[in-house]
Structure formats: C-alpha cells, structure tokens
Design goal:
about 100 residues, alpha+beta, OB fold (Dihydrolipoamide Acetyltransferase, E2P), five-stranded mixed barrel
Length: about 100
Amino acid sequence: MNTLRWLWLPILLISVILIGCQTGLDSSKAKFYDLKGKVVSVEADKNTLTLDHEDMPGFMKAMTMKFSVEKASSLEGIKTGDHVQGKLKVTGSEYVITDLQKR
C-alpha cells in the first residue's frame, strides 16, 4: 500500500509540469495590433524607430516608445516627423513592427 502512494507522486508531478508547459505555449502566441503614430526618431542601422503612438485598444495606451522593425526595408523613406501606420506583432514581451507605411 505504501508503494502505491509513491507511484502517484511522479504521476502528479508530471501532470503539473505538462499543464504548466501548455499554459506557457498559449502565452507565446503572437497577437497583432493596428499601430498609428508620429516618428520621433529612426535608427535604421539598428532596425528601430521611436514612435509617439496612439492608443492600441485592448493592449496599450498612447505613449512614446522605441520599437524594432521586422524588415530593415520598412524604414526606407521614413524620417522624423512622419505620420505612420502599420501592424505591431506582440509575442510575450517582444514587440515588433511587421508592416509600416506613411499615412
């Protein structure tokens, strides 16, 4: 009888670990948000730009923030003061602009 108790312990532990892993996978799914804002600065050599962006409903209030861009070519022709729009891809704590164009 005592042996049976010890057999349940590893089964319980494995179940808890598997449930935790599945929850972690759900949080890593990418979500996309519409992005609109005014360019504060561009760092083409680092594939980043700083935007004074509008609210992104359901995600983030308006603020000034630096973002990475997925493709360096997205920054071609973009300069400080331009009004832009695009898509922001959010995966966990990583934010990347996947599409960007002047408005």
